[in-house]
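#structure-requests
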Amino acid sequence: MKVAFLDRDGTINRSFWTHEHEGGPEYWAGSDEPELLPGAAEGMRRLIDCGYRIIIITNQYPIGEGGITQDFYDRFTEKLLAKLRAAGVDVLDVFFCPHRRDEGCACCKPRPGMIQAALKKYPGIDMTESFFAGDSAADEGIARACRLPFFGVGRDGGQRIESLADLVRFIS
């Protein structure tokens, strides 16, 4: 099974993360209604049409750091998945890391724990046919750690793309 591992905030939906003050915890400063980024649903539908399954890999350390609650994360994620389903996108699974960045867990990107968990749950994943797309250095780092091609959404590093819709130029 070939998989498109996709970051969530800033890749699929608009990110509302901000800091109340320098060095303080990140918190969600926007709506609790997910806002899909331009080209996200279209790109994800095209990936599915090309035979990819979609797995979302997302750091959510503000849960552990007190910026959001687990309940907020769960509700937001359910709304996001419902919006994607309504747009014709079936997401196979979502893996998230709720731990504080300073906990040293194995799952906080760029560490590979979430992808390792996906491989354990879905042993049919073919890593030679899969890739990672995201908008941060941590996303690029997990791709590198897992030896996956990387597509940088709105950023350099790997192959730069402006939205997930641009992936079809590179993926078949």
